[in-house]
């Protein structure tokens, strides 16, 4: 069974440190009225992030960048892609009490949200790879608008791959495209795509076994089976295996942690999902204590 690469995930989050300032400004563009009213500026504090439960971590590097933007040095104890047990210390830092309060809640919420996605992705990856370690879980571009960069890095921290990061990355025909191609058989569509994009693999989403058979006959490289039953996936997989060069069968829509393994057993060579993007946040505890100065 493959494991997420914490080093790769960590570097990916470090490349997102340009988001640190916008995340801080969103919550504290006009300062923190409470800490200002209490006169906490100039007092020294120590902050620690802990995992309340088992989780796969995502976003601690970006959280550290947020603290450092406000002059708070941070020690990273856990990096994105690592799976931890309850009580694990994730990061710690010392700084001015007012600055700590400007940063910690936004950083906590970000780590919780992204770690929830990473944990959900890890669970599905583990379920799939327990059946076949060569089958990938691919997360779609259906992340919350404006949050795709963070969401995509979060699910890759959980061991998933990206289905397609954007519209220009791959060719994938949906029913919405075919609405304008009713007069063309799939073989003619495929012939055009091979001519226009000869270096690309061509994928098509199909809605039933009959469409899948037509797409196989037309020579599509990847068939994305939308909301097929496990049995129907098995039927299409058998049709694909009969070809000298079988297309990749991707099960999409309605795939969950509970049934992902069944789709792989039926013959799916890839699982396509957006489910981790809607995962509940992980639970990260934050402790802040005053540091007495001599």
Descriptive account of the structure:
The longest helix is centred in the middle third of the chain and has 33 residues. Strands 7-6-12-11-10-9-8 form a seven-stranded parallel beta sheet. By secondary structure, it is an alpha/beta fold. The chain has eleven helices and 13 strands. The protein is elongated and about 80 Å long. α2 packs across α4, α4 packs antiparallel against α5 and α9 packs parallel to α10.
In short:
This protein is α/β, with parallel strands linked by helices and 294 residues long. The chain has helices at residues 6-14, 20-28, 33-38, 60-69, 97-129, 148-157, 175-178, 186-196, 209-218, 230-241, 260-266, and strands at 44-51, 55-56, 74-76, 83-84, 89-96, 136-139, 161-162, 171-173, 202-206, 222-226, 248-252, 270-273, 284-290.
């Amino acid at each position: 069974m493959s494991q997420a690469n914490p080093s790769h995930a960590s570097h990916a989050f470090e490349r997102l440190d340009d988001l640190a300032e916008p995340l801080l400004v969103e919550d504290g563009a006009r300062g923190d009225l409470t800490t200002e009213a209490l006169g906490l500026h100039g007092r020294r504090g120590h902050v620690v992030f802990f995992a309340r439960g088992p989780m796969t971590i995502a976003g601690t590097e970006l959280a550290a960048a947020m603290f450092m933007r406000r002059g708070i040095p941070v020690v990273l104890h856990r990096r994105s892609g690592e799976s931890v047990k309850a009580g694990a210390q994730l990061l710690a830092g010392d700084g001015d009490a007012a600055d700590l309060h400007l940063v910690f809640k936004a950083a906590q919420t970000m780590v919780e949200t992204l770690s929830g996605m990473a944990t959900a992705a890890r669970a599905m990856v583990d379920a799939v790879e327990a059946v076949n370690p060569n089958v990938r879980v691919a997360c779609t571009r259906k992340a919350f608008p404006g949050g795709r960069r963070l969401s995509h890095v979060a699910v890759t921290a959980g061991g998933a791959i990206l289905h397609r990061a954007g519209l220009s990355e791959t060719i994938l025909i949906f029913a919405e495209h075919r609405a304008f191609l009713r007069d063309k058989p799939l073989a003619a569509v495929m012939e055009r795509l091979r001519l226009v994009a000869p270096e690309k693999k061509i994928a098509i989403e199909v809605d039933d076994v009959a469409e899948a058979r037509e797409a196989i006959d037309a020579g599509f490289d990847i068939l994305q089976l939308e909301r097929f039953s496990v049995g129907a996936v098995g039927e299409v997989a058998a049709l694909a295996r009969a070809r000298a060069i079988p297309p990749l069968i991707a099960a999409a829509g309605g795939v969950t942690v509970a049934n992902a393994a069944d789709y792989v057993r039926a013959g799916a060579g890839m699982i396509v999902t957006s489910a981790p993007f809607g995962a509940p946040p992980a639970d990260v505890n934050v402790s802040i204590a005053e540091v007495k100065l001599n």
